[in-house]
Amino acid sequence: MHNTETLVGETLNDRYKILEKIGTGGMAIVYKAHDGVLDRDVAVKVLRQAFDSESAVVSNFIKEARSSASLVHPNVVSVYDVCEHGGFNYMVMELVDGETLKEYIKKNPRLPWQEACNYAIQIGQGIQAAHERNIIHRDIKPQNIIMDSSGTLKVTDFGIAKAVEGDKAIAGGTAMGSVHYISPEQARGGFTDFRSDIYSLGVVLYEMLAGRVPFDGDDPVSVALMHIESEPINVKCVNMDIPSDLAYVTMKAMNREPGKRYQKIQDFLEDLRAVLADESLPSKEKDRFMNIEFDDNSENNNTNKSSNATHQREMRVREKGREKVVKKKSEKNAILLAFATAAALVMIGLGMIFLFANPFSETVPDLVNMSVKEAEQSANRHGYDVELEYTYSDSVPKDVIIAQFPSAGETLDKQEKIILSVSMGATGGKTEVPDVTGISLEEAKREIEALRLVCEVDFVDSDKKAGIVVRQTPSMGTHMNPAGKVKLFVSSGSKSSVTEETKAPQKTEEAKPNDADKTDETVNGDNNTQTTQKPTATNPPSEVDVPSTMMYSVKIPDDAGETVHVKIVANGNVLHNSTHSKSEGKIVQQISGSGTVKIQTYIDGVLIKEESVNL
User: Which positions are annotated as active-site residues?
Assistant: First the structure.
């Protein structure tokens, strides 16, 4: 009998010449080989010699090969053949020239969220192909995902996959799969189904976004118990740069209760594609529709029951005295019909008045001090979606809503989102965050940076004067460590028709015409820059630099994908850093200051424009 550990140089079944060993596992060894018949390189997975005498293991190995051979998909490693040679068993598979996703993550921790989304979709497509054939993988992990040189991901090693066919429990009641990615039901050694693969893929997505697995410990048992008993830290708390919807999708896939996860891998994939396209999540829309439909059906059922009973009673009365009161009843019915019609018209009119005048139809509910889950449910019941912003707080417990925008009682279009500020708990730092709302961005930055904190700026639509800080996270009084990040939401003034910064200088009786009053406009390729400068009588331009505002425009390239990531940097400060739909056409960013400003524009991480503008 051949030694399965030393097959290099051997030719199996006069066809597969073993070239080198490329991988080892607990049950099998993988070799690179050359198929002499089809003249191509392949991977040969050989069952270790120690297991060849165990009929159950050999049977499962052959079943693995047959299950995998039925999967033909670009995101699944193909199985070509299963053979026996010299007393040992092996399968022949597609040879993928690349590295495992685990190796890639180690070299690139915290992948850009768009890349992580794309990879999760590819993996999910491979899993979907298996699920459509009633095959559960049961060991989804980055080590079992191979990335080829073109960036295509392929799922491999269906070593513990089993055709469902009525037997969905793990053989022998033992937990199978890698402990860091194992589902809670697998860790308990209980019932498993397709949702176990969804949980494991959720963990893989979490690792790509966070740069680490959600649970880790000193030994496998402690990690398995964490999957069963503990709630993972929300991935948004670990990486605050990812979209809130992506965090929602990741944590839903990883829910400890199978019934609260995605029930089908297709639903998981639909939400991931929606995140990439910056669209609302289909799963949330379905949940809301089902709730409304359920309520409507309940009302309709009750109405129908009542109507049927009434109808039956009326029929009995009519039949009893039909011949005697035909003419009289016809006259009476005509009168009743007239009254009923008039009443219906009145009710319709009142209903229309209530619909358009009801102050509660677009009133924002009070969500402060609720848990994230409670707040999302309450907002959805009122017809709103939410966007989560995570921040530190000394006084509000973790995962509880600190504040909301707009505030409770204010009106908000149903198509807009309620922004919720969610507590991440206390930092234990000693630097107290000041209140910088209501002042200019320049003043706010000076205050924040004087405390050795870091500013992050995001411009938002607001009725406030352009350049004024509308809100901040964390809020005033929160203690932070040095270099902690304070995010400032600054008014772009876009909700106002005219602002002081954007209107052209006006000549009034109080302000005489001045040759220095001017509006400079330059157009450079795809980027348009409009600068407005309004000197004052007390500080003429010849003596001081007068602060001015520039509206900087970035055109989205025609050859861009459906979504693009745009970053605008002015004198080293990131003023804009978010993803946009191609349909927006262009992005307009306000820049305030004086003197020379160096502006850099990045599209999908690539510097496409760099220029200096005098303000």
Answer: 139
